């Protein structure tokens, strides 16, 4: 039994705008957190690293919990509670002055995202599949639009943060909280109320099922190989560039390319590629970026720019495709759990790979980039077959 506050088209718009707003609020605060902790609060470097690591763990690692709750109670409660916790976390962080309150606020901020992000991602995937069944429009087109909206928020959020920082870091936190307050209000008024469903297996049982689902685990490995390479934007790329200002422009270039290119790329790939083929092609492009960076002469912006462009091109193919494949493995009642598990398991792969790859990057030269190129190529080999036929 469902009471619908908006129609299907209105719900899609709400979800796309929500993803944009999530990233506006997030990136208004988080890029400035490390500087605030070290410069304004005087925390030691290891403690700053711990704070940032706990935020990532409390978010990415718990996506699977948020996805399971979405399956059980529907997306609306998960989004509303998650937004309320994010507002509380940002407000707490604005006034925290000691290590323990900062740690608690940051964990709360991360856990909030572990609730609302899987809920929104699950619902947009469900709407994309439903639209594909009704109209024949490939699901990757809507998922690509969703991804582009998130990147637009990631591009605008730091600008909002810089403007708010003129009044201090607390003002940036409160600006971010204000964005999430608007999202909370919008979903309170417009998100459909879905009755709680029964018949879901216990979480431990459901996780056991995922652990035995070979094809889905292969998808997680494939998507995780992309995330490992995307993480090089924060690890290998700074070592390659060396100039913080140039690095900032490269990040802006990546987001700008997605904002401008994601929708046409998704339309093209939907016409000529299946989701599995698009994921493989995206991973090959990411590998090509690593090889080009290794072979191009000299250091500095040119090899780095080539890497960013090819990585972003691969991202525009791989991310919507990976999300489009999840419903094929999830079943009718497990879409939220599988959506969350894709993020959590891929995040574990990034965590495991970070230390050895960091040591490799310290060696410098072409070798690290050639080794990095092997990761998405192996990921492309992991992409599982699906029952759906490729388009046209």
UniProtKB/TrEMBL annotation:
The chain crosses the membrane at residues 12-34, 40-57, 78-96, 102-121, 142-163, 169-191, 203-226, 246-265, 277-296, 302-325, 337-360, 366-383. The keyword Nucleus does not apply. InterPro entries: MFS (IPR011701), MFS_dom (IPR020846), MFS_trans_sf (IPR036259), MFS_Transporters (IPR050171). The keyword Transmembrane applies. Its main location: membrane. It is a multi-pass membrane protein. Residues 11-391 form the Major facilitator superfamily (MFS) profile domain. One of its GO terms (cellular component) is plasma membrane. It is found in: Cell membrane. GO terms for molecular function: transmembrane transporter activity. This is MFS transporter. It comes from Saccharothrix coeruleofusca.
């Amino acid at each position: 039994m469902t009471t619908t506050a908006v129609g299907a088209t209105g719900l899609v718009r709400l979800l796309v705008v929500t993803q944009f707003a999530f990233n506006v609020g997030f990136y208004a605060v988080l890029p400035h957190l490390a500087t605030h902790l070290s410069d304004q609060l005087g925390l030691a470097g290891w403690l700053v690293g711990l704070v940032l690591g706990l935020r990532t763990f409390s978010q990415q690692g718990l996506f699977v919990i948020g996805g399971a709750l979405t399956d059980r109670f529907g997306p609306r409660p998960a989004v509303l509670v998650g937004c309320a916790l994010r507002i509380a976390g940002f407000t707490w962080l604005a006034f925290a002055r000691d290590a323990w309150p900062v740690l608690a606020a940051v964990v709360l901020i991360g856990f909030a995202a572990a609730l609302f992000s899987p809920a929104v991602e699950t619902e947009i995937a469900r709407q994309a599949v439903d639209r594909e069944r009704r109209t024949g429009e490939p699901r990757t087109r809507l998922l690509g639009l969703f991804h582009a909206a998130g990147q637009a928020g990631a591009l605008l959020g730091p600008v909002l943060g810089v403007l708010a920082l003129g009044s201090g870091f607390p003002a940036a936190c409160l600006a971010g909280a204000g964005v999430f307050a608007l999202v909370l209000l919008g979903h309170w008024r417009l998100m459909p109320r879905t009755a709680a469903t029964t018949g879901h297996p216990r979480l431990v049982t459901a996780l056991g099922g995922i652990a035995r689902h070979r094809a889905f685990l292969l998808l997680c490995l494939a998507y995780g190989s992309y995330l490992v390479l995307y993480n090089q934007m924060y690890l290998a790329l700074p070592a390659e560039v060396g100039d913080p200002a140039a690095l900032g422009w490269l990040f802006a270039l990546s987001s700008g390319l997605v904002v401008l290119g994601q929708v046409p790329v998704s339309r093209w790939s939907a016409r000529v590629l299946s989701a599995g083929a698009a994921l493989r092609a995206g991973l090959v492009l990411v590998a090509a970026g690593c090889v080009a960076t290794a072979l191009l002469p000299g250091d500095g912006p040119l090899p780095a720019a080539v890497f960013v462009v090819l990585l972003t091109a691969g991202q525009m193919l791989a991310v919507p495709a990976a999300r489009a494949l999840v419903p094929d493995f999830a079943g009718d009642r497990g879409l939220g759990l599988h959506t969350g598990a894709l993020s959590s398991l891929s995040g574990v792969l990034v965590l495991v790979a970070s230390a050895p790859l960091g040591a490799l990057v310290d060696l410098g030269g072409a070798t690290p980039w050639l080794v990095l190129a092997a990761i998405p190529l192996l990921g492309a080999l992991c992409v599982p077959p699906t029952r759906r036929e490729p388009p046209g």
